[in-house]
Amino acid sequence: MKGIEMLTCPYRTLMRYKRWSTDGLNAVLADTMDRFDEPHQILILRVLDHIQTVDEIFSHNLEARGHAYAVPRSAVLPSFETLVDKSRSIGAWYVDYTDRLTPDMVDEAIDFSFSNGAPARMTRGEMILHVASHGAGHRGNIGALLQMNGIQPNPDRITDFLEAERA
After folding, report:
1. How many domains are there within the chain?
2. What residues does a divalent metal cation bind to (predicted)?
């Protein structure tokens, strides 16, 4: 990769990493969800739903279009299967979006409103960084819960992703 493409490469890498690590977490959860008691299952679903909702909100923000979210979660908690399907879809959207991202778009500031109605302004690059770090933090929350229940979390380090991509 040369020249101008290098300016958008980190964003493309982050979204590919996010998709990979989310898919890995969902695979571990699909195999182990029945090992959690109901309160922990609900907690996992709530965290996954929150990640998904924030991803959807910021996809709207990146396209400079409004969203209907008043809070960063669904009104009705979706099933695990629904959340997995939605995470695959939004993961593909972000990879496609960052593939089309040009250097002049990265620093373009966009006005939008947070889900609580507060006005905000961020660049496209800042929004992508937010989506990546937000998801990583909450995947870590679920990873800790997995470990507390004797379950090995999926590899979730960007170095693991890069190694897998280069293999």
Report:
1. 1
2. 50, 134, 138
